[in-house]
Amino acid sequence: MTDILKKAALMRGLLPSGTSIRLAPSGIFWGETADRLLQTGLAFPLAGGPAAFSAVEIVARTADAIHVLGPAPLDAAATWAAGEGLGAVFDQQIDLISKPRPVFAGLPSDRPLVMGIVNVTPDSFSDGGDFAATKDAVDHAFELLMQGADILDIGGESTRPGAVPVPVVEELRRVVPVIEGIRHRAGAKRPVISVDTRRPDVMRAALAAGADIVNDVTGLADPESRRIVAEARVPAMLMHMRGEPQTMLGEAQYDFTPLQMVEELEQRVFEAEQAGIPRDRIVVDPGIGFAKNTDQNLEVLARLGLMHGFGCTVLLGASRKKMIGNLSRDEPAKERMPGSLAIAIAGVEQGVQILRVHDVAETVQALKVWAGIAAQR
C-alpha cells in the first residue's frame, strides 16, 4: 500500500467540506520511458510534454492544518480525491498541469529556455557596476546571445534584500538606451527582450523602446502596470514576493512556504486575468530569495511542481543567490555558478520551462548534457 493510501485510510471522510487541494506532479520521466507511459495511459504529459508524470503529491489545506500526502500513483490519488469529494478539483488540476503551454514569444517550446540577465545597475548583488554603462550593457547582451540566451532580461534597479529604491527617472536613464541599443545593433534579427521593472512608467517606456516582455518582481501589483501590459498585449512574468526589498526579509514567516507562495501568487494571476491579461501570456516565478530564507527557499525548490497547477509557463530565477553560499562555504556571488547549475537542473527535472541566469554559456552546456541523458531514460 502506498504512503498516500495509508494516510488516506486514516483520513477517509475526516477532511471537512471546504478543503482545498493542490497537486505537484511526481514520478517524472523523459524520452522513451515517457512515451511508453503516455501510450499505455499510466502517465499524463507534463505541460504538454516531452516529459510525463505518473504520480502526484497532494497538498490539502483545511481550516486549521495543511496535509501533505504522497507521492502516489495517479490512479490511487484519483481514488482518494474522489472518496473525499474532491474528484472534480483533482481532475481540473490534472488538466491544468497536463495541457500544452503556448509558444512563448515565438521561442522554441521543446526545451527549457535560458533568460540572460543584463543588470544596468551599480549595486546589484552579483554584477553591480559591471555593465552600468550603456555600451557595456549592450555588448554584454550580445555576448549572452552568442552564448545561447533565448531572452535578454534588462533591469535598471536592484531588488536585492535591503536595496534602496531608484528614482524612476534614473531607472529610465539606465534601461531605455540599452533596449534601444540592442534593437539598433540587432536590426532585423530582433532578439527577445524582457524589461525587469516594477514601475509602470518604466514598463511603458521600455515597451515603446522595443521590449517584448514585462518581468515584474511584484507580480503586477500596481493596477496601472496591469493596464499597460494588457493594452500592449505582451507576456508578463509574475513573481512571488512580500513587502518591499527593504522590508521583505522581515516577512519571511510561513506555515508551509510552497503552498502559501502558490496561494499568494494565484491572487496576482487572478488580478492579471481580471485586467485582461490571458493566462497564456502569464509566466509564474516562485521568487527564490524574495521574502524567503534559505530553508524556505529549499522547501519551495523541492516542490516547484506545485507551480504547474496554474497552467502557465514556469520561470525559475535562483542564479548566484545567497542561499547557495549559505549551503556551501559562503562564497561571494560570482563564485556560486556551480550551485546555480545544480538548482537549474533540479528545476528542469520538475518541468520548469525558463531559467533566469547570469552564467548563460555554462547553463546552456549543462542543459544540453542533461537533455542527452534524459532522452535515454
Q: How would you describe what is shown here?
A:
The protein has 377 residues and is of the alpha/beta class. Helices cover 41% and strands 18% of the residues. The strands form 2 sheets. Strands 5-6-7-8-9-10-11-12 form an 8-stranded parallel beta barrel, surrounded by 6 helices. Strands 1, 2, 3 and 4 form a 4-stranded antiparallel β-sheet that branches. Helix 7 packs parallel to helix 8 (223-232). The two termini are 26 Å apart.
Quick rundown:
This protein has 377 residues and is an alpha/beta fold. The protein contains 13 helices and twelve strands. The chain folds into two domains: 3-98, no CATH class; 113-374, Dihydropteroate synthase-like (TIM Barrel), CATH 3.20.20.20.
Key structural traits:
single chain, 377 residues, alpha/beta, TIM Barrel, eight-stranded parallel beta barrel, four-stranded antiparallel sheet, 13 helices, 12 strands, 18% strand, globular
Task: Explain the layout of strands and helices.
Elements: H1 3-11, E1 20-29, H2 31-39, E2 44-45, E3 52-61, E4 66-73, H3 74-83, H4 87-98, E5 113-119, H5 134-147, E6 151-155, H6 168-186, E7 192-196, H7 200-209, E8 213-216, H8 223-232, E9 236-239, H9 257-274, E10 282-285, H10 294-302, E11 313-316, H11 322-327, H12 337-349, E12 354-357, H13 360-374
Parallel strand pairs: 5-6, 5-12, 6-7, 7-8, 8-9, 9-10, 10-11, 11-12
Antiparallel strand pairs: 1-3, 2-3, 3-4
